[in-house]
Amino acid sequence: MDCDPQANATVGLGYGSQTTGRNMYDVFMSGAEGFAETKLADIIKNTPSGIDLAPSHLDLVGADPYMYQMEDRAGILRKALDGIKERYDFILIDTPPSMGQLVINGLFAADHIVVTLDSGTFALDGIATLSTIFADMKEGLGREIHPDMAIITRWSEGCAPRSPKENVTEKNDLLSRIRALFYKKPDPTPAEIKALEEQKAEEERLLSILGEIRPLFPAVYTVPFSPLIYEAQKRGLPISHFSPESSAGIAYKTIADVVMVWK
Q1: Are 2 and 9 within 8 A, CB to CB?
Q2: Which residue range forms the structural domain that includes residue 132?
Q3: pLDDT by residue (tens digit) across 206-259?
Q4: If we measure between CA atoms, which residue out of 77, 68, 74 comes closest to residue 25?
């Protein structure tokens, strides 16, 4: 269920963000005066990967102001799910990154909550925003929200690249050992030294972020940066179908194994 107006999940599963037809905007607007009733079952599409999709659309941006005028506005999505939830073992709800009724609806409807963050400097700011949303929901709706997992994506994306010399793995064979006896390894150049220093500083920054995030969640997973993620998205396939043996594919498989045993 793509509840984000950016529609990245919709595009990533093979549908254009401007695809015509009913979508999540119509589902959310069903409770507004003058709008026809649209059930989730009416908009679900099959995708090439076998995952059913309730698509999003840029129009969803306009739903938020209307929702503030609706009764039980936090429970719109939860109520809509009643018509389809018995069909599926798992339903994933993708929400926008910003605070609003779409996020609140997703949190209110979910049995489990996964928080996704990137490895940038502002990752902790995102957690602070979520904490505000959780507190508001407890105060306004009487429901406590406890996230089950955090996923930090694009892990190590900002690390300085290693020098070409370091990317070459020297075989530990007899020839290599003999060569080491007679040939002195050249001293690193100033550029190589600087690159290594930058890499070390970036690794320390990432470890610092990880150290601050881990105490806030029952489980924290990292997904390494991989250009194959973008290739998979362009082809409209999950990484599990496009490149399951990639570093990112293996990381997501580990996360999926954990989620599969949730009740």
Answers
A1: yes
A2: 8-259
A3: 888 888 888 889 999 999 999 999 999 999 999 999 999 999 999 999 999 999
A4: 77
